[in-house]
Design goal:
The chain is α/β, with parallel strands linked by helices. It contains 5 helices and 6 strands, in the order E-E-E-H-E-E-E-H-H-H-H. Helix 2 crosses helix 5 and helix 3 packs parallel to helix 5. The structure holds FE2/S2 (inorganic) cluster (FES) (2 copies). The site of one FE2/S2 (inorganic) cluster has 12 residues, from loops.
Length: 177
């Protein structure tokens, strides 16, 4: 739904508000992958939960829910953030890009294609976060060497150990090699 008003489902832990009443909520308008959404949410809702549980965008993954793995990485106004650590209530008027927003129809984003070309994943759980972080890494110009890419992608953990190929994929997207 575009431009609709969502009354979100109950948020986990909302009963802990203290007085047994409804948890404090706010109305937030965010543009996600070009579509404007106005949502009424519990003030404690993370951007990751807004995306996954309220908007049905499950591409962004919840690995640690604590800022340690990068699986939830998305772009807010072009800057990468850990969406599990970002309160949605503070994002009114912002533009969010998730992995679902990268392709143009059937045409993959160059970094998505590079991940396929370089075979840069195994289980794929970290991959959406790696790709979003990689997109920002390229935009930031942090791709001068494999070492620089590793440094600026270091917030994204891959438990399958695909780091060598992930770096190659970012190099391919940045430099066409
Ligand atoms: S789920 Fe957000 S950093 Fe791990
Ligand atoms: S591909 Fe499995 S965690 Fe990265």
């Amino acid at each position: 739904m575009v431009g609709g008003l969502y009354a979100g489902p109950p948020v986990r832990g909302a009963e802990a508000a203290g007085d047994g009443g409804a948890a404090p909520g706010s109305r937030v308008s965010v543009t996600v992958n070009g579509d404007r959404h106005t949502v009424t949410i519990d003030n404690r809702t993370s951007l990751l939960d807004l995306l996954r549980e309220h908007l049905g965008l499950t591409g962004s993954k919840k690995g640690c829910d604590a800022g340690a793995c990068g699986a939830c990485t998305v772009l807010v106004d072009g800057r990468r953030v850990n969406s599990c650590l970002t309160l949605a209530v503070g994002l009114d008027g912002t533009e969010v890009t998730t992995v679902e927003g990268l392709a143009r129809g059937d045409e993959l984003h160059p970094l998505q294609q590079a991940f396929i070309d370089q075979d840069a994943f195994q289980c794929g759980y970290c991959t959406p976060g790696q790709i979003m972080s990689g997109v920002a890494c390229v935009q930031e110009g942090r791709t001068g060497s494999p070492e620089e890419i590793r440094e600026w992608m270091s917030g994204n953990i891959c438990r399958c150990g695909c780091y060598v190929k992930i770096v190659r994929a970012v190099e391919q997207a940045a430099h066409g090699k």
